[in-house]
# Entry
Amino acid sequence: MKSQSAVLYEIGAPAPYAESRPLSVEETDLAGPGPGEALIEIKAAGLCHSDLSLIDGTRPRPVPTVVGHEAAGIVREVGSGVVGVAPGDHVVFSYVPLCGRCSFCLSGRPALCEPGFRANAAGALLGGGTRFSGRRGPLKHHLGVAGFSRHTVAAQESLIRIPPEFPLDKAALFGCAVLTGVGAVLNTARVEAGRSVAVIGLGGVGLNAVMGAVVAGATPIVAVDLIPGKLALARELGATHTVAVGDGDPAAAVREVTRGGADVAFETAGVPQALVMAFAATRRGGKTVAVGLPHADRTAPIPHSALVGEERQLLGSYMGSCVPPRDVPRFMALHQAGRLPVDRLISRAISLGEVNEAFDRLARGEAIRQVITF
# Structure
């Protein structure tokens, strides 16, 4: 069948993207689903910093590829052997396909699924190969999703069925921003009620971490960022204090508010300086959680002696340490109960044709989540 897709042919185009046009919105050919796969009509897809990191080369992936990893849609066709989803089902994508058989999946850590990692690294589906082709030949699937397309084919292991009444523009955010931010708080750090929390970086993931801290009953909750509008939104979402980067020493300000440092500090900006700041803002015996993804060759200087002498914990959190079939429904239930107002993070709805301009807004920090609606 024919689809319309946003294709990245080359990594590292210069900003502004409205001029360099790194994403080519074009007609693509899409083969039908193979065994264990489904054809999905995409209804909404969020623009995430992980997509921007692919475009600017911070987190390179194989190209040419159909971009997009945070999406929701409706199943239109299934291949042989598919169980769990059927035509007409509404679904959210997991950007790590969960094989269910490797040691990580069997031990409750599917975000580290080994076959899923290999498939994503190759730009292929979990069962192997690709289903898209464009004007220059075969196209890869970004993280097994390829969400910036009117239609896509995905492995059934990448799909989570959701209630049909749940709005799909909001549902898309549960595929990445909510899983990653809320999951880091509730799953990775397991923040307890009454503990103090600091969140460094207030993009979509960081603001979800703020909301997750509210759900956990943390207090105080200190939000740190450069941009005044994001700090204001963090307060509206439940942060008790905000700290502006560039106005003195942010880590010292966090330590003052929390009387010695946060019990748990989350770095969600994806830059080494933010991790150093988060570590400096953490109290003795506390946890520092790295959530943002920098370029693979970037390093952060962390004092070794503090890890030992102060019994610090330095944790990594990928996909919020989530089990998506378990956590997407429970996080959606929290939203429906009014406890996770993720709709507040949607800056604007856009068309697929506006995607390059939208990434300029994201790079400038002018938007939290822009959602492509089809």
Remarks:
- The chain has a mean pLDDT of 97.
- Residues 181-318 form a domain with the Rossmann fold fold (CATH 3.40.50.720).
- The CA atoms of residues 52 and 359 lie 7 Å apart.
- The first strand starts at residue 2 and ends at 8.
